[in-house]
Write a structure and sequence with these properties.
Layout: H1 9-20, E1 27-34, E2 37-45, H2 53-64, E3 72-78, H3 85-104, E4 109-115, E5 119-124, E6 129-130, E7 134-135, H4 137-140, H5 143-150, H6 170-184, H7 188-204, H8 211-220, H9 224-233, H10 241-245, H11 255-271, H12 278-290, H13 294-307, H14 312-322, H15 328-331
Parallel strand pairs: 3-4
Antiparallel strand pairs: 1-2, 1-3, 4-5, 5-6, 5-7
Helix pairs in contact: 1-5, 2-3, 6-8, 7-9, 11-12, 12-13, 13-14
């Protein structure tokens, strides 16, 4: 796919929205730069008080430090609060500490912007001053925004999961339970072979899944061992399961196969009962994490735990995301997902 060239502040602000998949609110977004190439993207909620600025800035530098090739950074603060002198004073120590921590980490800030509900303005960290306000329409009419919309990208208004409408017919749930009994009747070797064969057929076959195949797959995903095996099979790489679950490999994953799995899992969720929904939602969260969309992955885990508060894999992923862990593929400039 043709490389995108950012030439204006409006281009970059637009790209942030498309990269995240939604327009952030009361957030700091930092992007690492590798010479003239964008690296990792980090979004964090703004701190509740400037008193926490130093700890907050250390967290920003720690998260962005996963990009070992970064040589600089840029940032944007998205806020709907009125742009008053009091608000500027609230943000000043936060920006100052973030700039210091990133500079000490070898990623000095090149530029920054404050993005409000109707306009944005450049912030110069070295002089702690603001440039002229530019209407937000400039972002909407930017070349990057037009190109990405043409490519099929969308920016949602806020962080909410774009999930299909659920219609779980009772007969389908009965079929899922019947398939669970069938899976249980097989020995471990047969279970794994059958699960992997079905998964591969659905991801590589190119045909829409039948209702019977969806019921069988959803039943298979109710077994943690089989579920984890299918997660590891998604990238299409023949490597140890532990490496694949964490997105660690020398060669790039097959993102086309992962995209196919994402579409299939969304279809599966649309017909799953609440009792069976945790597994497909957790896999969707895993895909989001592999792609570097930590906020979306965390949102998936919250939804999973609303269905099943004791769902162990979602609990573990929530803890991992809370620590700021980024998948190996998302940290790599050659392996990272490049939908945009």
């Amino acid at each position: 796919m043709e490389t995108l060239h950012i030439t204006t502040a409006a281009d970059l602000i637009s790209l942030i929205g498309h990269s995240l998949g939604y327009w952030p609110h009361e957030s700091l977004v930092c992007i690492s730069l590798q010479t003239n190439r964008m690296g990792a993207t980090l979004r964090l909620d703004l701190p509740s008080s400037p008193e926490h600025a130093k700890v907050y800035a250390q967290s920003v530098a720690g998260h962005l430090g996963c990009d070992a090739d970064a040589t600089a950074s840029v940032f944007a603060i998205f806020t709907d609060a009125p742009w008053t002198a009091q608000r500027r004073e609230f943000l000043r120590p936060i920006i100052h500490e973030v700039a210091q921590q990133l500079a000490q980490s070898g990623m000095p800030i090149r530029a920054g912007w404050i993005v409000g509900p109707s306009s944005f303005a450049e912030y110069q960290p070295h002089t702690a001053s603001y440039g002229a306000e530019v209407p937000l329409e400039a972002v909407q009419s930017s070349c990057i925004n037009s190109e990405l919309i043409f490519r099929g990208s969308q920016v949602r208004r806020g962080l909410s999961l774009a999930l299909p409408h659920r219609m779980a017919p009772p007969a389908f749930e009965i079929d899922v339970e019947a398939n669970k009994k069938m899976v249980s009747s097989r020995n471990a070797t047969e279970q794994t072979a059958q699960a992997r064969a079905l998964w591969d057929l659905l991801l590589e076959g190119g045909n829409d899944p039948t209702t019977a195949q969806l019921a069988e797959l959803l039943a298979i995903l109710q077994f943690p061992g089989l579920r984890d095996r299918l997660i590891a099979d998604m990238p299409g790489l023949d490597l140890p399961m532990g490496l694949l679950l964490f997105g660690e490999s020398e060669s790039s994953p097959r993102w086309d196969r992962i995209d196919a799995a994402e579409r299939l899992l969304l279809r599966l969720y649309s017909v799953a009962s609440p009792h069976h929904s945790a597994a497909p939602l957790t896999l969707l969260g895993c895909i989001a994490w592999w792609k570097g969309r930590g906020s979306t992955a965390a949102d998936f885990m919250e939804l999973v735990l609303s269905f099943d508060p004791e769902y162990r894999l979602a609990q573990l992923m929530k803890e991992m995301l809370g620590c700021g862990l980024v998948s190996g593929w998302a940290r790599s400039k050659t392996q990272a997902y490049r939908h945009l």
